[in-house]
Input
Amino acid sequence: MSRHAAPFRPLAHSSTDLFGRERELATARDLVSSSRLVTLTGPGGVGKTSLAVAMAGPLERTFGNGVWFVELGAQRSSDTIVETVATNLGLSAVPTMDAEEQLCRHVAGRSMLLILDNCEHVLPGCRRLVAALLTASSELRVLTTSREPLGVRGERVIVVRPLPVPPKGRDVTVGELRDYPAVAMLEARAKAVNDQFEITEGEMSSVAELVARLDGMPLAIELAAARLRSLPVRELLDRINDRFALLNRGDPTATPHHHSLDALVRWSYDLCSPEEQLLWGRLAVFSGSPDLVGIQTVCGFPPLEGTALLDALDGLVSKSILLPELARGEMRYRLLETLREFALERAHGSEDHVHARNAHAEHYRVWAAETARSFFGPGQADSLQRVQSDFTNLELAFNGLLRDPGRSRDALEVASSLRFYWITGHLRDGRRWLERALETDTAASLERGNALRVAASVAALHGELPRAQGFLKEAGEIARSIEDSGLAAHVATWTGEVALASGDLEAAREALEAAYLGHMGLPDTEGQLTTLFLLGIVKSALGDHQGASDACWEAVGLSESLGEKWARSYALWVLALDAWTRQSLDAAVELATESLELKRDFRDDLGTALAINLMAGIALDDHDPKKAAQLLGVVAALWTLLDTGTRAFGPVLAPRYEGIAPDAQDRLGEGAFQRFFETGRRLDPGRHIDLALGCADTAEKDQAGAGSASDLLTPREREVAALLAEGLSNRAIAAKLVLSPRTVEVHVEHILSKLGFRSRTEAGLWAAQALQGKV
Output
């Protein structure tokens, strides 16, 4: 045997070129030191090879006989693997010995790391060889990259996932946007081909959308960045729908299946069995990450049924076509958008695809209807979370139903079934869905009547009372024409709410009492609970405090018997509101606290805003204007998010709520009020309820220690921090201080590092109080 090859040298990007892979890199290095076989798996183009190369260099000193890298992407048969590895290790053929035996003898007693890259298409040969080599040498370590694990005993698997991308709709600065690895990679690669490329504030949303549409996949980002040599970001984004034609110019030195996005995905497709290819095509009717029940219901028809479906699903997971994700204890399966579009192109118009698409629409129609029917019971938080998780699939199904002339009534049903999701914090989406459904199907029906009364509730909560009245008038006419007492009772409930918001308390009381009788006769727990707490508001406003108490405690008792929390939290809020009206502050605090504690389990931004606004008033009357100002800031942020405000709740509630701010400002002074207000307004959503329930002193503790913390900053950094507190962007700070944007970015990075903050928002909150009079 002779040895001609040199030990491993980095073949691709160095570790400094990795973006957001610190955790995987550390995990892989730890596993290689403790396990003899480690496999990096993940979709094609996710960066497995780059990660292997990045970790191999620093490990070279660990192994006395070096690190050896063998690229297998060009192999076409498992039968050639042994010879390829032997050649790459510098071994000459020995006529009297087969290559596998020669390799086993070579590695015996040697301390070395062998990296086998791109094993997925020659798995049988890799399995045999790796098992034999590990048996031959106790000092050998093997690292493989593959879209599918080898399945050799003792193998440890690390799943390499796409790079994190900015969440949709999140308001961030340019600096915060660059903190997302996918964005950082796009910018670095774009600058390599276009030194004038820079992410500006005007391009932020386009950049965020682009990396999200590319699934955060490094190869796709590499290919897209190459196009930024000649195309602006917005133009590239507009053309990304034809990604397989557009992203076709890769690194000419790369393996053939990495030359273009189309070649990469076709390579993955060809590695799948016919059953896996069929399931891949059916899964393309989903969006986002469906759960197992959804996949079984939509995709489980011949020839993929029962075990056959589960086997194909397992195959797609093992080949990294599907990425399993555990969320809130539930397993979901993500098909990257690039892989979905590839499958859609292949399956478009086929009978199998049409069947799956129809099954998808029906599954989510049934699921949405059942979610609405069972909402008033245990598991409300899970129901709302599942709607959030499945929202893109629900929207896909809804759009499909709208396009089908025979199923527009089903679209009305879906839009109205999501009513609790709309009114807990998604009013704009609800309005859009309901308007489209009502415009598409205008025939009188129970489904249209229900959609109208839900549209009325959304309009009323937006403060659009005449519009709500119009919806309710038509819904009432439909209820009478089809003689549906349930619909009539719900129309009466929301007629009472609109009258309450208009200030007509007697009309509101009359409508709500009639609605209560109607709901009791069915019985309809949804209607009973909603009507009772609305009736409590009306009676409190009329001065009938005992009547308000009776209505709300009846709602609380019914709610507790059902195990539900949403309506109970509203009933308790009304009781707290009534206690505040009577200036029973201790009772008001206790009831409002209980209401907010119930809301911890599920996101109800509308109810949270109403309750925290009440607690601001209680704090003010309890001689704590600082807390009141902070809570008013939280409420302002929530109303902005909801696209509504206290005026939508009419003359009963709005004047009392709106009178809190000027009173607090008079007590604190305009400057102090604004600082405390901004502290609340900038607070992370997860801390809104914490602040209201007694964590307001955290800000004061932070302020108490502010002197020592601010002393860590240079005078210029304190200036930058003060402008962060005003909500200015890096570019605006640069203009104000006559600095370059990059210099400001460096100052911000130093501030975050010195003070241990994770975001500009946290630094701004700290600076709003900590630097008073210091800058």
